[in-house]
Amino acid sequence: MSNSLVPVEFKDRAGAMIVITPDDVRNKLCNPTKSGKLPSDKEVDLFLKLCAHRGLDPFTGDVFLLGYDSKGGANFESIVSFQALLKRAEEHAAYDGKECGVIVVKGNKIEELAGDVVPTNVQLAGGWCRVYRKDRSHCEYATARLKSYDKGHGHWRVDPHWMITKCASAKALRQAFPSDLSGLYLSEERQLNEITEPKRETVADLPGILDQTPSPSSAPDAPAEMPAEVKDLFDRGSQLPD
């Protein structure tokens, strides 16, 4: 450990004293790269300062240091948990709740569905979220396109609906509370260079589909595959017809 690195001490939002040492970061709070690399002094120092300045408690799962291998060598990023974002929003006096769900393709149109349960007769295209503040007349609205986030492996294969909903929610929360949440990202939002597994083909891989404004809707009442002419429009990068 470098002599320039020192422990940080700060109080969390509940007033409890937290002490984090550089050795804590390397031995307890860091996920090494697949090749076994550990963070540099600079990366450890940045992590310590982030925790102290934002009041993040890594011992309760608020944040951790994630390592990955790239062509340029080992890299480390500070990753926060979804619950850490929700807790900070909940603690804000202006927070007035949120709504979230998925964006799906039904026939030749796209729609918003509340929640992350998707019928088998529609195709998943993305996620959406609205965050409300008591001191604003309009909500903060954000969407997340599946193609931009889906890593094609891990929990993305099992439950892409919930994963993309979390990404949209994280975006909307940061927009609604920039002073508290800016610069804090989930692992689901990061595209780490060591990912090599092939991506699953989805409708979100087709251009043009998310250029429309989705409209809230109930679940589709009749199964229908995407029409061939719509697929052709996607392949040519055109807009869907009205």
Q: What attributes characterize this protein structure?
A:
single chain, 242 residues, alpha+beta, 2 domains, five-stranded mixed sheet, three-stranded mixed sheet, 10 strands, 28% helix, flat, disordered C terminus
Short précis:
The chain is α+β, with helices and mostly antiparallel strands.
Helicity level: 25-40%
- Structural class comes to alpha+beta
Cα separation of the termini = 62 Å
The proportion of residues in beta strands is 25-35%
Largest sheet: 5 strands, mixed
Task: Write the element-wise H/E pattern from the N-terminal end onward.
Answer: EEHEHEEHEEEEHHHHEH
What is the count of structural domains?
A: 2
Shape: flat
Total DSSP helices: 8
| Rounded Rg | 21 Å
Strand order of the largest sheet: 9-8-6-7-10
Please tell me the overall pLDDT: 82
Total E-strand runs: 10
Can you put this structure into words, describing what you see?
By secondary structure, this protein is of the alpha+beta class. It folds into two domains: 8-80, no CATH class; 93-180 and 195-235, no CATH class. It is built from eight helices and ten strands. It has helices spanning 22-27, 41-54, 82-91, 146-149, 155-158, 160-176, 178-181, 228-235; strands spanning 8-11, 17-20, 30-31, 63-70, 73-80, 95-106, 109-114, 123-133, 140-145, 215-216. The strands form three sheets. The protein has a five-stranded mixed sheet with strand order 9-8-6-7-10. A three-stranded mixed sheet has the order 3-4-5. The chain has a two-stranded antiparallel sheet with strand order 1-2. A hairpin with a 2-residue loop joins strand 6 and strand 7. The chain is flat, with a radius of gyration of 21 Å.
